[in-house]
Amino acid sequence: MKPNTPHYVLTADNSITYGKHFYTTCNIKETCWGIYHCGIMDDAVTNTDHLNALQFLRRIFIMSLQEYENLIQSSDSCKFLLAFVCSDLMVFETRCSYSD
Amino acid sequence: MDPVTEQGLIDLVSLGNTLELSLYLNWCYYVKNKLSQEDLHRFNLECAEWRHTLGAYKQFQDLYCKHHCLKIDNGLHHPNMHIFQPSILFHAVSLYKYKQRMGAFGSNFNLDQLKSSFITHFQEFHPLIVNPFKQDINRPSDELHYIHTFEWPGPSFSVVSVPDTEDIEMAGR
User: If both were cysteines, with which of B14, B77, B143, B155 could B82 make a disulfide (CB 3.0 to 4.6 Å apart)?
Assistant: First the structure.
């Protein structure tokens, strides 16, 4: 499911749901707007705090900036491409409890 | 996010703007004096990272403007005037209008606090867009084409290296 996609979880009984969130650079705009929705609507659009979310995004961002800097310094486009592929996906986990 | 392509640059700028404005969407920012020790410690770490990221973003923009420019309709344009400054203005006005539309739905901070924090931020880091921001937030949402889309609302462009020759004048430089 792409970021910024409205969704909810239904379970027949009290359940513990284990999930993961993925940050991909190809969907980064939707991620950004998802952050805006959470910021403006407070907790109404999410069921848990993702305390490390911005930290992960900062890492992706800083890595991208550093790679651009390296590109300028070295003009080595092959290294540039490889580094972006490596930084393309970062994962963090959440555990959400659902109960009556 | 390869910033030497149109989409890569737009993605990178979107993320940069989001991280830049994210501090003002954090409820802790508005109640700094009332935070518990634990929350205050976490918020201070958040602020330190935010400042570091903002500094890196600014360095990137300076470096980018030295080495690349935007080609729009066969004209060369300065990235700062045609994407960096407008894009953060678009994001900030969109957030303001969104908050205005939602009224008191989110109660962690109010519209005036958001407006004040944006203006203070722009006065320090983007003085050129203080007045455009004040003007745009007073315009009806229908007149602001950019708040209705997730896509880059500006003209299509391609990224080109800054020519070595000095005889090409770039608009806005």
Answer: B77
Tokens (6 digits) for A12: 């027949």
Residues from chain B contacting residue A64 (CB–CB below 8 Å): 1, 3, 12, 15
**Which residues of chain A are within 8 Å of residue B49 when distances are taken between CB atoms?**
54-55, 58
Name residues of chain A where pLDDT drops below 50. Answer: 78-79, 85-86, 89, 95-100
DSSP A4-58: T-------SSSEEEEEEEEEEGGGHHHHHHHHHHHHHHGGGG-SS--TTHHHHHH
CA B84 → CA A72, B99, B165, distances in Å?
A: 19, 23, 24
Name B70's Cβ contacts closer than 8 Å, sequence gap at least 6: B76, B77, B78, B79, B82, B83, B157, B158, B159, B160
Per-residue tokens: B105: 């739905």
Cα end-to-end distance, chain A, whole Å: 25
Interface confidence, given as ipTM, is 0.85
Domain residue limits, chain B: 6-161
Q: Which structure tokens are listed for A48?
A: 């848990």
Note the Cα A81 to chain centre separation in Å. Answer: 21
Cα Rg of chain B (Å, integer)? 18
Q: Which pLDDT belongs to residue A77?
A: 52
Per the model's pLDDT, the better-predicted residue between A77 and B94 turns out to be B94
* Interface mutation target, options A32, A56, A72, A74, chain B, most CBs of B under 10 Å: A32
